Amino acid sequence: MPTQVRCPTWWIEGLAKITMFSKDGVGAAERVLTLPPGLTAVRPTDLWPALGPDRYSALVESLPVGAAPPVPLVVERTAYIPGTPAGTTFLATPVP
Question: What is the pLDDT of residues 59-84, one digit of tens each?
Fold first, then answer.
């Protein structure tokens, strides 16, 4: 089930720091990704195979690129039902 990160300013690249937390709230893994303009789908188990099948939370933070300010991001969680076109998408909750 990928987490999708959208950069609404389609022509600007961005940087995002993704921190995965285990269900007990412990930081399990962290990575900084370069986001091309548009939609980037991130599969946490592809980035961190050691995470394994469990429940995790993700904190996605936009980072500045050089002297430019952080780009605005839209983060959503998408889940698909295997073998069908059916699925769900949920927008993430912004953290102030």
Answer: 889 999 888 888 888 888 877 777 88
